Amino acid sequence: EAATRDRIAERLIRLVLREIFDLGAMQTDPNFANYRHDPSTDRLVLLDFGAVRDIARDRQADLRALLRAVLDDVPERIRAGFARLGLTDATTPLAHVATMVEMARLAAAPLKQRAPFDFGASDLVARLRAMGMEIGMAGDFATVPPIDVLLLQRKVAGTYLLAARLGARVSLE
Fold this sequence. Notes:
Shape: globular
Mean pLDDT: 92
Order of helices and strands: HEEEEHHHEHHE
Radius of gyration: 17 Å
Strand content: 5-15%
């Protein structure tokens, strides 16, 4: 049923935010095998705690600042946030940084819309993937982000893909 799928996706998304900003620990392997839904209680159960990673308080602050910069749509703060997280450095080509800022804006669009975001019908992942591939194919991007940032990206992207697979519509505002 659509309402159940929407509710599960919303809980998964809220869990990611709670893990990052409240708990300071994140289960980093977002796939259907690591979650169970009990229809009799409508509870969502998280599995595979071997994939849990701590999130340092300073990293939480950096992530909060980047999210605020993206939501406020302030490119210089977004760029500074990327640098603090180790996504870019002085060697990162400016054109790539500009593309990454645009990717952040694009990824944040669903958070800013008033209507529920239709994960199943959206082509957002494909557009972001194409932009990322463009950077990767250029062959001049040498910044390797820290593992905690890569795992965070995997969790956020994986949760998005779970919501898309559920065909969920979720209000993200």
